[in-house]
C-alpha cells in the first residue's frame, strides 16, 4: 500500500518536472516564463530538501552533494537578477540541470 502511494508521488514529481521544463522553453510570454522559472527554482529546492532529508544522518558527503545540486538553482536566480536578458539561457539551463539531476539523484542514488 505505502509503496503504491510512493510510486504515485514519484510519478507526479516527474510529471511536474517534465511539464515545467518543456513549458519553460515553449512559452513565448516573458512574464509567464519568468513565473515558471521561479516556480522551477522553488521546485528544485523542494526536490533537494526531499532528497537530502531522505538520507541517513551520517551520509554527510551525499547530503552535501545533494545541496550542491540544489544550489545550482540559487545560482540561476543570481545570474538572472544580475545579468538579465544577456545570460537568460544560462540561468534557464542551470535551473533545468538542477531539476533533472536532483530528480535523478533522488530516484536512482
Tell me what you see in this structure.
Helix content is 86%, strand content 0%. With 109 residues, the chain is mainly alpha-helical. The model has no long low-confidence stretch (mean pLDDT 95).
- Report the uncertain regions: none
Average pLDDT number: 95
Structural class category: mainly alpha
**Distance N terminus to C terminus?**
23 Å
The strand count comes to 0
How much beta, percentage-wise?
under 5%
The Rg value, from CA coordinates, equals 15 Å
The SSE string, one letter per element, is: HHHH
Largest sheet: none
Q: Given the C-alpha coordinates, what overall shape results?
A: flat
Tell me the helix content: over 70%
Comma- or semicolon-separated keywords:
mainly alpha
Spell out the blueprint of helices and strands.
Layout: H1 2-26, H2 30-53, H3 60-83, H4 88-108
Helix pairs in contact: 1-2, 1-4, 2-3, 2-4, 3-4
What is the compact description of this entry?
By secondary structure, the protein is an all-alpha fold.
Amino acid at each position: 500500500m505505502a509503496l503504491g502511494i510512493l510510486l504515485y508521488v514519484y510519478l507526479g514529481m516527474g510529471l511536474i518536472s517534465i511539464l515545467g521544463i518543456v513549458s519553460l522553453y515553449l512559452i513565448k510570454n516573458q512574464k509567464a516564463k519568468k513565473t515558471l522559472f521561479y516556480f522551477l527554482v522553488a521546485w528544485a529546492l523542494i526536490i533537494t530538501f526531499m532528497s537530502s532529508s531522505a538520507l541517513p544522518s551520517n551520509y554527510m558527503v551525499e547530503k552535501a552533494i545533494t545541496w550542491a545540486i540544489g544550489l545550482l538553482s540559487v545560482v540561476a536566480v543570481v545570474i538572472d537578477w544580475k545579468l538579465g536578458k544577456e545570460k537568460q539561457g544560462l540561468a534557464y539551463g542551470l535551473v533545468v540541470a538542477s531539476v533533472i539531476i536532483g530528480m535523478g539523484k533522488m530516484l536512482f542514488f
